[in-house]
Amino acid sequence: MLTTQTNTESLKTVMKNRDSHSHVSGKSIYVDDIPVRIGTLYAAVFSSPHAHGKLQELNLSEAKQMPGVVRIFTHHDILGENQIGGIIPDEPLFAEHEVHYQGQPIALVIADTEANAREALHKIKVDIAPLPIIVDPREAQAKGELIIPPRSFRLGDTAAAFEQCTYIFEGTAETAGQEHLYIEGQGAYAYPMENGSIRIASSTQGPTALQRTAAQVLGIPMHQIEVDVTRLGGGFGGKEDQATTWGVMAALAVQHLQRPVKLILHRMDDMKMTGKRNPYTSDYKIGLDENHRILAYEATYYQNAGAAADLSPAIMERTLFHANNSYFIPNVTATAYSCRTNIPPNTAFRGFGGPQAMFVIEAAIDHAAKALQIDTNIIQRKNLLTENSEFPYGQHAKDCEAKACWDTATEQYDLKKLQQEVADFNAQNELLKKGLALMPICFGISFTKTSMNQARALVHVYHDGSVGVSTGAVEMGQGVNTKMAQVAAHAFGISIERIKIETTNTTRVANTSPSAASATADLNGKALLNACQQIKDRFLELAARRLKVAVDDVLLKNECVYIKEEKTDFTWKKLVMDAFLERLNLSAKGHYATPVIHFDKAKEKGHPFAYHVYGTAIITATLDCVRGTYTFDSVKVVHDFGASMNRMIDLGQTEGGIVQGIGWMTMEELLYNKDGRLLSNALSTYKIPDIYSVPDEVSVQFLRTDNRHDLAIFHSKAVGEPPLMYGIGAYFAVRNAILAFNPQANVPFSAPITPEKVLMGLYGSK
Ligand code: LUZ
Ligand code: MOS
Asked: Cβ(517) to ligand 2 under 6 A?
């Protein structure tokens, strides 16, 4: 029997992220903080200066003579396979015959100090015969440069439905990429163990991905590689797959040199070499009836995958899953192309292709509304998902909170009044204009690849009553360790102080999915609950026997055995020691695999998500019509957290996601030139939100609901990614402010809406 009922009182007492103290006092350990072992060597990566070409000659002789240089590795030194592709084997660790992007690794210098390793990079000479460079995904698609064949999701019959539409609008919408800019850059520290084993401390969201790939490249079994992760200084998807590269390189050097090897990327190298959120350019066609009901929607997405597959096929799939965002549309055709270009392979980023699709449908709706001269939110509200609405992929909306979130937001925050304030302000001000937009979200929770939705946990109760917990969850600032400690404390009815969350380690918890897809707390929490329950069942049986009562009548809470509601003097500590003396097993391994989910790729139909997360944001911006700059007055949100198990952490995730989403939509301008060179390669040229660009007000209301989302841990819905998508509303708020100043403005649906673009809108015309 699994107890999944939440005692919310016991949960409310443990609100704070347990890492907060060590974070602010600088005591938290990241890869670069691990005390180095004697004999440690340092690595630096030599990468391609050209975006596409034939590698004709690589001359290492001068570099090898540089002070402190121990060895320089290339693909020749790989004993296994020179292959790191996670979904498709199309990505070498080191370039062999060709290079496909600027920043593609070619060689690895190992030296006695980091400075010496980096110095030697300048002496490496490479001769590359140029090949044509593609950076535009539409050009790639036209030339047949696709990572995988295109895919289409279909509901109803769009061709027939467009015949019935009163209004039809077509256009293009684009979103740029986004640099992850985790505070802790990519890095790994590997060292030799006995008999050819290697231990890798890595800043990775996917310890098993690194273990598997390292084994494959080194040509040894997975059990020879142990990956250990204490925590990450941010991931955001950037370390789901792309932390692997650096861990494998360090391990390769260890295999040959039998010395500890550390590889930490400098920020500009990290920005240059790693992939980012996939830029998209998309075409849409939307058809409405005379009552503004959306009857038909077609979208074609051109995903800029970069030079290799990485996770782009899965990201493209999630794009298709989010074509209709939070709306029910009876006839949908959504088609996606994953386009190969000569920029670094793009990768997971909070939302994973979902936000890109959601921007397109929002653009289509906004296009229709402006053309029909009605408020965008009239079309939005009218077409929201309702209970049992069918998604284009066959799943039906259950416990659908789309309208509940929308209506609560518009009522509680008084949309009418907010709109009036904006109108009044705009009537009174000539050079400052306000804009307002609503952004409803609906995000599917589960890895789209069904097999990835599994997790395990290992629990040891020590005979002093303390508890050690290992799971596959990686702490990256999102507070999952706190949530795991809450789960264990709650399961045993003991204080959270008794719970230690161990590092994430592939020898303690094997075959893990990456901490991603917002599903980490759900999957690992459920596995952990399963492990705790096994131990608890043994304890309860013992307690019932000792107390001579039925096992169903005993329970554990407040660090004691209770008989029904009656407290006994049988304490947790005594219970544990008695169990140990009776030689009961005080450890357990838990397992969880999300039930219900399935997907048939041949039909593109199924039930891929455990559940959906809903919400609505109202965003207001003020635009300086002289400078083209803007600030956000407020973001007012009603969000469907289910029954949040930790409001402080969930609020933090929501606020952080909103600001990151606003950054992507408004200021973060990721630019490659025609040669495939990253122009925005440092914080001087790539602007991310700082404290001054945070909205003046961020209000987050927890939707009150009776729904019990059983597939969420303690009914507490996944929160990692969905709030980012509220940021899309920021784009439309700014756009509306421009139109308030210049109703003739031509403002393409092209994000980010930087101050430069704003100025062109303010003073341009159709
Ligand atoms: N990673 C992944 C993800 O491999 N599959 C997913 O569906 C996903 N979704 C969101 C973020 N990362
Ligand atoms: Mo993520 S985009 O959930 O690694």
From this structure: yes
The rounded distance, in Å, linking the Cα atoms of 125 and 130 is: 16
91-117 pLDDT per residue, tens: 999 999 999 999 999 999 999 999 999
For a mutational test of ligand 1's pocket, the pick from 448, 454, 515, 612, i.e. the residue with the most ligand atoms closer than 8 A to its C-beta, is: 448
509-514 average pLDDT score:
98
Q: Which CATH architecture has domain 34-132+180-273?
A: Alpha-Beta Complex (3.90)
Is it true that domain 8-28+454-593 has CATH number 3.40.50.2000? no
* pLDDT tens per residue, range 319-368: 999 999 999 999 999 999 999 999 999 999 999 999 999 999 999 999 99
Residue intervals in the chain for CATH 3.30.365.10 = 8-28+454-593, 280-448+601-762
Query: What CATH number matches the domain at 280-448+601-762, 3.40.50.10860, 3.30.1490.20, 3.30.365.10, 1.25.40.10?
Result: 3.30.365.10
Share of the chain above pLDDT 70, in %: 98
Q: What ligand has the least distance to the C-alpha of 86?
A: 1
Annotated catalytic residue 721: yes
What percent of the chain stands above pLDDT 90? 96
* Contact 448 CB / ligand 1 (< 6 Å): yes
Name the segment(s) of the chain with CATH classification 3.90.1170.50.
Answer: 34-132+180-273
How far is ligand 1, taken at its centre, from the CA of residue 388, in Å?
A: 25
According to the model, what pLDDT value does residue 1 have?
Answer: 26
Atom of ligand 2 nearest to the CA of 352: 2
For 529-548, letters b (16+ CB in 10 Å) and e give: bbbbbebbebbbebbbebee
User: What pLDDT, on the 0 to 100 scale, is given for residue 709?
Assistant: 75
pTM of the model: 0.97
Structure tokens at 395: 């799943």
Is the minimum distance from the CB of 516 to ligand 1 under 6 angstroms? yes
The protein residue with its alpha carbon nearest to ligand 1, atom 3, reads 517
Lookup: tokens for 392: 């284009």
Indicate if ligand 2 lies below 6 Å from the C-beta of 442: no
Residues 6+ away with beta carbon under 8 Å from 372: 167, 288, 292
What is the CA(18)–ligand 2 centre distance, in A? 22
Which of 578, 579, 599, 595 has the alpha carbon at shortest distance from 587?
579
**pLDDT given at position 8:** 44
Phi-psi region at 157: left, alpha or beta (left = phi > 0; alpha = psi -120 to 50): beta
For the stretch 28-77, pLDDT in tens is 999 999 999 999 999 999 999 999 999 999 999 999 999 999 999 999 99
